[in-house]
Automatic annotation (TrEMBL):
Highest taxon of the lineage: Bacteria
Keywords: Membrane, Transmembrane, Transmembrane helix
Lineage: Bacteria, Bacillati, Actinomycetota, Actinomycetes, Propionibacteriales
Stated name of the protein: Biotin transport system permease protein
Residues annotated as transmembrane: 25-55, 67-86
Amino acid sequence: MSMTIGLYRAGDTVLHRLPVGAKMLGLAVLSVAIVALRGPLLSLGFLGVAIVLALIGRLDLPSTARALRAVLVIALVIALLQWWLFTFDRAVESLLDLVSLGLLALTLTSTTPTTETLDAVVRWIRPLQRFGLDPERVALTIAMAIQALPGTLALAQETRDAARARGLGRSPRAYLSPFVIRVVARAHETGDALKARGLGD
């Protein structure tokens, strides 16, 4: 299970040097095109574009494969459902589209420091302050969401390892119950820490 989702990797590629606004705009345009344009051949073309961008950003192949493994599992399940409900072509299209979107998002987060992304978000939504929106609080929420996913995956891996060490690796109950308890406990700890700093009032 990957622990590398959303982690920036320093580099000097064209994608690393591009402004964060241009990268996020490009991701938005490509995402809309992937969803709006239909057909397996177009989906294959978009996957090719995503792979080329990942190569330009010099993403590490083993880390990328591990990070996309969870996306691939979800995409396969959805594709099988699409095949059952509709057609084989639609299933292939869904699979390719989801993998393309996952790879594009991974390329963006791997070539853009999280702090730059958050600073840009704060700048973009600052005009909304007059309507009562707090840009700093929104940025904090986004940062916590980004950090929560790798942390949750780490808890899942630790809990699964503990279940296997007890010889209960095949028991969903031995894995899921401790995992849910630990996730809830971490959420309470985070809430207490924010409240202690006056951020939850």
